[in-house]
Amino acid sequence: MEKKGVLKHAPPGYALGIILCFYLISIGFAAAIAPAAQRLLLKLHANFPCNLSAYLVGKPVVKIFDRLNLLIFTAGIIPFSCTFRLFQRKAIGLHFWEWRCWLRYFFLGMGLSIGSILPPLFFTPWALKMCSLNEVLFRTFACAVVVSFLEEIIFRSCILGVLRTAMQSAMAITFSSLFFAIVHFRPTAASVGILSMPLSWKESFTIGYRCATEIFHSFHPIAFFNLFILGCIFAIIRIRKGHLMASIGLHGGIVWMLLLFRKLIYWDGKCFFWNPAGPIDAPFATIILLLLLIYFHGQLANKNIGA
To answer: 152: closest CA among 253, 246, 85, 278?
Structure first.
């Protein structure tokens, strides 16, 4: 990809610094407004109760903070990048008319997750959890669609797009995927010792600090490597297709099946090679992801040769 925009003559580290600073600023901003946002949520739920407000109020405060940070980062980086000509708004790649492509890759993502989850269930005991199936299906599907939509805009549109204006595509894919893996190490309510709402300012900034440094507290080499490979796959698909719908679909299908498994199935078995409770942590997922990466990389190479 030819370099262009204000980063055309800038060193690659300049683009990386911009992204890192913007991410840290978004965490700080989320920490600053999280207490007020959560008090507003509690007030709305008290005055206008509904399933959505009950669902949000019932979520751990750390997850609420994470979603807020994700929204702030998404809402800020697009206009920031376009204003400073780091990339063009039309390059976001939301081609909604490519819904068939989204659907195909969504099913592929479902198959990838199922293939990582099912094998150990044939050899170890498991049980279904008691819950409302319709409610779980709707909530997990909605969560998977929203999360995949936001994360693909952030990582495969904005971050990858900015990096590709300052460096070669291979380096841009590598660094965007590293960033994708790092930010997926998120704190839990137990790890920060904050379990209730509403947050105080001190608690909010404690969560923000842990979000920025969690990679140093709970690093898992296999999970990090698998997330990095997954980020590379999404980035290659984004470049190959020229739009986001395929990577959003693949991402959404993977997340939906993982969420469904965690909500519907109780599994207490332990296996290093297979781990359905956290498939991204297991070597079996590494093998599947590497094969998928080789396949899509070959397709991208063939496209470049044909071009």
So the answer is: 246
